[in-house]
Amino acid sequence: PAPRTVLLTGAAGGLGTLMRELLPEHGYELRLLDLRPVEGEPDAIVADLADRDALREAVRGVDAIIHLAGISLEASFDKILKANIEGTYNLYEAAREEGVGRVVFASSNHAVGYTPRPQGDDPLIPIGTPRRPDTFYGLSKCFGEDLAQLYWDKHGIETVSVRIGSCFPEPTSVRMLSVWMSPADGARLFHAALTAENVGHTVVHGSSANTRLWWDLTSARALGYEPQDDSEPYAAKLVAEQGELDPGNPAHARLGGHFVTDPPIWPH
Ligand code: NAI
Ligand code: 15L
């Protein structure tokens, strides 16, 4: 049967807030979890991904998990290690112990951020492109994808890892025109990821049907995802303000944008 009750981790964050609004329209009852209280949601579970007992209780009885919680930008290695690497492990362990069979994992374009972005007639970036994390943050998403594969192969827990481009109400940069996923398409993709059968561990790119798309959506469409939106209506204004991307600028030449060129965060 299709999952109904879904634990949404990271529910207080930007994407969590959008999904709290949009996913119930697809028929889900959400249980919410975050490190911070979730505004207007007194029943939300306030817990750290480091708290294994709290996670076990949080996942008990749900049909599936959408895992958004964690650090969503570059940070020191120690912080990424705790929240994204250990935290995601703790969540999968809780899922295994409580028999939850399906996870949707919020991976990121930054798992493959060093990949050159297509120019001219270049083909779209395929889903099998080698991992090229652009940050410790992106590296933690590589770990999450591999953890998902391990928990499928060893324990039969299915995951769809969604390498999200940029999911915000509107694109705010010229780069984002190519990787943008509208919130409504995000909810459509999460719905497809929750309901498609026999996904094992499937990795998909998460974007709308953008005119300027950089990566291939075939594996997402194979789940039943049919994106309805395109960033192009935002293009004229953004290009007028920022100019077209300059292939000679390293921050414009690769999928991960400025994550590729920002100085590393030291010390640990
Ligand atoms: P966000 O930073 O707004 O939200 C993340 C939430 O996770 C926050 O509410 C935070 O309190 C919570 N959190 C952090 N550490 C935690 C911990 N140890 N225990 C429990 N909760 C914790 O990020 P956003 O934009 O909502 O992203 C959600 C997820 O999607 C993240 O995993 C991010 O890496 C991923 N993602 C988002 C993209 C986007 O365009 N918004 C693009 C690619 C990936
Ligand atoms: C991400 O992974 C971040 O979580 C999000 O805040 C954006 O920076 C996005 O990637 C992006 O690449 O635009």
TrEMBL record:
Domain NAD-dependent epimerase/dehydratase, first and last residues per copy: 6-166
Family: Belongs to the NAD(P)-dependent epimerase/dehydratase family.
PANTHER family, alphabetized: 4-EPIMERASE, PUTATIVE (AFU_ORTHOLOGUE AFUA_7G00360)-RELATED, NUCLEOSIDE-DIPHOSPHATE-SUGAR EPIMERASE
SUPFAM superfamilies named among the record's database cross-references: NAD(P)-binding Rossmann-fold domains
Pfam families hit by this protein: Epimerase
Tree of life domain: Bacteria
Organism field: Streptomyces hyderabadensis
CDD domains cross-referenced by the UniProt entry: SDR_e (cd08946)
Record Gene3D superfamilies: NAD(P)-binding Rossmann-like Domain
Lineage, broadest ranks: Bacteria, Bacillati, Actinomycetota, Actinomycetes, Kitasatosporales
UniProt entry tagged with the keyword Oxidoreductase: yes
InterPro entries: Epimerase_deHydtase (IPR001509), NAD(P)-bd_dom_sf (IPR036291), SDR_fam (IPR002347)
Entry protein name: NAD(P)-dependent oxidoreductase
UniProtKB keywords: NAD, Oxidoreductase
